[in-house]
């Protein structure tokens, strides 16, 4: 009885449906498609769990559909020869169209892949301040194809992800502290040590000037018009610009209160015959 059932099953499996395609081939193709569907479903669930807090919902759904389509396409291409479908003609026709579409969509695909890499690497996030080339500002939005940056003067700039991915990205607020510096030039007749003490005291009194890393104040060079004092200060990254503007003015006011003035461009001219030249001027008048 069992032998008869097995023989009957084998006959059914080997029964030709069309050309050389048998029932077994159709069942095998169905199993391959089913497995591909299960794999795609598993990957979709994994992507939803891992990227739910990193991507917008619409972008995530678009990515999942793309992965779905790729997996099922691979499965279909795998089973079509088993079902007796020749892909040669389709590939020739599709190849010509593919070349044309490929040239047209080269940038699109490049931006798409760059967007995926940016999402995976996460060098920046929404709200960060970045500098890319000559564009500086806040990241307002990150799409699968491009990134929107709001510049400091209020302009919205769309940067293609390919450009962003291949450029040097500077994030000025990634570190909690940021250093800024001044070069303050005082007259040669002023006391540089006294000026340094005044500047150090002002930095120490400022609530947002960090003590660690410590500030540095020192004579950097003897300039053409005065003694150049270099001032390096660390401040929290979020308010460093406010601290920089406030301290610079305080330093200027405090130095002047103590009789120390900012140097200005000047020239000292020496005449070989000063009196003689003066006599000539007086005579010419």
| SSE-based structural type | alpha+beta
Q: How many β strands by DSSP?
A: 10
Uncertain regions spanning at least 5 consecutive residues: 279-285
- Bin the strand percentage: 15-25%
Characterize the structure shown.
The termini are far apart. The strands form three sheets. A five-stranded antiparallel beta sheet has the order 6-5-4-3-7. A three-stranded antiparallel beta sheet has the order 8-10-9, with helices on one face. A two-stranded antiparallel sheet has the order 1-2. It has helices spanning 2-13, 23-51, 57-79, 88-104, 106-121, 161-166, 192-205, 240-257, 274-284; strands spanning 16-18, 21-22, 129-132, 135-142, 146-151, 156-160, 169-170, 177-186, 216-222, 227-236. It is an alpha+beta fold.
Helices and strands in order:
Elements: H1 2-13, E1 16-18, E2 21-22, H2 23-51, H3 57-79, H4 88-104, H5 106-121, E3 129-132, E4 135-142, E5 146-151, E6 156-160, H6 161-166, E7 169-170, E8 177-186, H7 192-205, E9 216-222, E10 227-236, H8 240-257, H9 274-284
Antiparallel strand pairs: 1-2, 3-4, 3-7, 4-5, 5-6, 8-10, 9-10
Task: List its traits.
9 helices; 285 residues; single chain; three-stranded antiparallel β-sheet; elongated
Summarize the structure.
The strands form three sheets. Strands 6-5-4-3-7 form a five-stranded antiparallel beta sheet. Helices cover 51% and strands 20% of the residues.
